[in-house]
Queue: 2 jobs
Job 1
Amino acid sequence: MFINRLRLSPRLYFASSNFDSAKSETDKQIISKQFKKTKNMNSIKNKVTLIGNIGNAPDIKSLDNNKKLVRVSIATNEVYKNQKGERVTDTTWHNVIMWSPLAEIAEKLLKKGSEVAIEGKLINRNYTDKEGVKRYITEIQASEMVLLGKAPQ
Amino acid sequence: MQSIKNKVTLIGNLGKAPEVKTLDTNRKVARISVASNEVYKNAKGEKVIHTTWHNIVMWGKLAELAESSLNKGTEIAIDGKLINRNYTDKNGIERFTTEIQANGLLILGQA
């Protein structure tokens, strides 16, 4: 029903003309490294798949080393009937991060409300908030993404 | 088909024995933490092991199974979904945490 409208992955990026047009030798190295990364079996040990809608426009950060980082939050809805027979929608919000080259694709194509399927892994990190409290956060680092719903014009 | 929208699978080892609580309703809840190791080679070609710890919650029958058969170091495979909840810690700070609620459990490494 929804699979395969538009399949976007680092692997495809590697195979596409982007690879040939990569400006320098180092760009090519980075891309082929990312390609190799997707080939090991580590993902079988830590894997998340989510299907949902994006709650905010992607938050894009460009880093010094020419890498891009995109943050989106994805809502997954679970619908069930409670004991009284009422329909209940339970929404869970997930923090998803995407690195280049997925980040460039996300920047171009994702908008608030877009329906996407992603696959990735769970990562933990900590930071200190403005009140000086150390906070721990769990995020999903996406490795593959499929856009669902209407294809962008 | 709800699980297709929010699905986690993990393979790893338990960091400590399960913490099991029995609620007033006689329902059991077990909490475990599982380490999944990722092995890769860094830019210098050195082998690096990166460990991620996951908090897992199990209810009912799964909690009973966890209590009876899981120990520190047991290798398991888990299927579940991501849930968020918030709580107030002992210093009065509100904290959010992401956990995995297990739907299925497989004990590995048993001959």
Job 2
Amino acid sequence: MESLLEGNSLFRWTYCLLAANEGNSGPGPCGETLRNGLLPAGFEWVAFLIAGLGIVMLLINAFLLLVMLYTYMERRLIGRFHNRVGPNRTGPFGLLQPVADAIKLLTKEDLVPAGADRLVFNIAPVLMIVPVLLVLAVLPFGENSFLANINVGILFVLAVTSMNALAMFMGGWASGNRFAMFGGMRAVAQLVSYEVPVVLSVVGIVIYTGSLSMVSIVEAQRIPFILLQPLAFFIFIAGSSAEMNRSPFDLVEAESEIVAGYHTEYSGMKFGMFQLAEFGAVLVTSAVMTTLFLDGWNGPVLPSHLWFLLKVFFFAFIMIWIRATLPRLRMDQVMDFAWKFLFPLSIINMFVTAVEVLVWNEPTLVQLWFMVGINMLVAIVGVVVFSLIFSRKGISPPRRKMSV
Amino acid sequence: MPLKTEPITVNIGPQHPSTHGVFRIRVTFDGEVIIDVDPVFGYLHRGSEKLAEERTYTQVITLTDRLDYVSSMTNNQAYVLACEKLADIKAPERGMYLRVIAAELQRIASHLVATGFLVNDLGALATPLMYCFREREKILDLFEMLCGARVTLTYMRVGGVFQDAPEDFWVFLKRFLEEMPFHIDEYEQLISENEIILMRTKGVGILSSSTAINGSVSGPVLRSTGYSWDLRKADPYEVYDRFDFDVVVGEQGDNYDRYKIRINEMRQSLRILNQCVEQIAPGPVRTNSPLLFRPPVGEAYAHVESPKGELGFYIVSDGGVAPYRFKIRSPSFINLTILRELVVGLKLADMIVAFGSIDVNMGEVDR
């Protein structure tokens, strides 16, 4: 409990509004100045609970509204990329389209296939959406605005987001559908593989910052890490779009191959929850990327929260752009890309960063720009060399002749 | 300890996003690798051949529209050519030019659909498809000027075409011919050099020339194997012998060649269209032969190079107003017979692409 009350968090502010009272002696979590809470002494736990639940409710609902906005944005932008208009009939500019979608999904029949494992089938959508919401706990949304500044923030994010592989496999397996099973199998293979380069790409940042806390990572960015760690950024955006099943890595729900992959058999709001989790994952990943690579909430003139949102939607736009442009890779190519391309590159990035930190322990701004130069060079050379090797290997795959 | 594995059988289709209609393939997988395929046809069977025996020769034209519904013009063309052979009617020159213009526009439209859906099968979220359909719309607008319909056209008649093209048609056709090369370049920029598409299609689904010939495959699929066979050159019908164009051939017959050959054929079609616009002279578009006619007893077979391959109509007449027997040699169906040779040993994702690159139309397969 005490660790949650450290720093200037929203949580601490609410807690102190309710619970700080005369009975608290000495410099408690609420400090010297704030001493008049609304609740009598002895009810600190109620304040703790209300502060926690209230802020969680606020955060989740605000986030879901943002996801709604994002789905609208994605559909409109994809429409523009497709040379068509996109939804524009529901409300002004079609802004109420997500509401219409939600109503449609809620009123649809909720089918469970006869061959399904009912319990697992019903749990899977919930398990899919929970990790996305859990990540919100450690994200700094603006200056002094975070639910908890735990000292293993980025580790928590990585650990929690890797849970959706399990949800996908559960959904795919429990459906009792062979397309869904293909989707589940692909999900496990792909998501577990891409976890490795993503984690290793973050290690570079952690080595430089010396901390796993999201807030300290933002505070340590004298230059945005997108410049200081270009290779890590590339690996992170490629790896995380693979983990979110967005093209060119959308094999798990490849429409032209396996219908809808692991959620083929889902209908109604369960399907809606999978979709919500996927769209939410884009926003959350954009937020994590903003925190790690684009200097978090920092920015001139505008308020910090607005800067954060702008940066998040900037990354979301890039993801929509990629999705509208690129075709899909094949399963073996996806695995090759993870293990033969991203994995060695992330090791190189980690090694280079470690050596740099060893040489310049407390870098001045000039030395920092020098590091930017070196890392840029390493990134370009690494990507070019590996893509040459990879593309030569990628073409003409082995043709397996088999007999039953 | 090795795990015990066993192959699984999956029904791909009849309801599946990328079976281009209602086609069903029973596929046996070992993991993701295909070890056996078993195509099942007939979900779109409408009995066109039998229906034709109950209708007059002119009425049958509407049935041919619905065979390959993305290239109605060439279906019309093949059918009326067969009828003309049977009844010994010769269409006037302007009529034949208009037929060639319509057929070549239809070829471009059909190849646009094929290319768009191929890239869609590759997983590109419909963006190239929408770009291809943008130009197809213009062709459909041109068809609307010709005959008032956009998809099921019934433009051609035995002994010519239904009506002459309006004045506006030539203006819009010329504008289309000017714009289209740039749009084809645009597709090539989007697709031809895309690294992912190269990785996915180059060297995948290789079809050898001999397999293709043994399966009596025709059209772009045959030409992609490097074998030059185009009925417009090999057995010129209408006025094709007056045009200067090349038969495009591929190199090794992989998925990429089958895509590329369609792009290049669109360019050749544009060449033919340009020559048509130059050569066409005023005159009647249709002979004065009656629409209800009784051809002499006998039989006739006429074939054209449809966008999918050799489309042939075999008609037997007993001297009545309707065909006694009506047989369609549909290129989609015959091209599909090599599917097994093409995809066994590939992965699921490549099978979808190989199937898409053959460019079948289920309306024509099941008839």
